[in-house]
Amino acid sequence: MKTRQDAWSHEEDVLLAETVLQYIREGKTQLAAFEEVGRQLRRTAAACGFRWNAEVRKRHLAAIEQAKKQRKERKRALEMMKKWQKEANAVTFRPLDENKGAEGSSPFLPAAPLTLDQCISFLQALRRDAEQLEAAHQENERLKRERTEWLARNEQLTQKLERLEARQTTVQEDYEALVKIMARARQLASEEGERFSLAQLLLTETGEQSEPMAHS
């Protein structure tokens, strides 16, 4: 089978994708990227654009989104650099070397300007610090929730323990009262003989029988 003369090779698709992504990151237009690829491959910009939109673009959707994010970060860094440079020129100065200063020149010159790499590095460091701070905040929130759950659980167990202790106290008091009743029953039985019954004892202990029992 014959190969079409205008067929794209894998290497050409890679070059097209890398160039377009680079231009997106740098804030340049895709048309300029198509023209650059066309110049290198001796194709028209229209052919490069058609190939990108028809075949190559859909295979690099994630990379395109990442390139757009990098473009925003680059734009933000440039704006920040311009702002810092303006402030540095306004308030920061350094003395001129007396041995190299020309006669009649100003005794002060603006400080060395910040480079784009320095701004990007600074912003990346800020981003890492922000990510670490956010991770620490999330961990702190998780520990707070866990502490709240443990406090609630501890409160529940404390209340359950208090109920069990109260129940144990009641059982202990009932047991001691029963022991006293049984001891009293034995004592009265020995004194009253067979005429004394446990019912009479209970009436005596509860105060329902107010008068003393007659002795035989």
From TrEMBL:
The keyword Coiled coil applies. Residues 1-60 form the HTH myb-type domain. Residues 123-174 form a coiled coil. Residues 1-56 form the Myb-like domain. Keywords: Coiled coil. It holds the Pfam family Myb_DNA-bind_6. This is RsfA family transcriptional regulator. It comes from Geobacillus uzenensis.
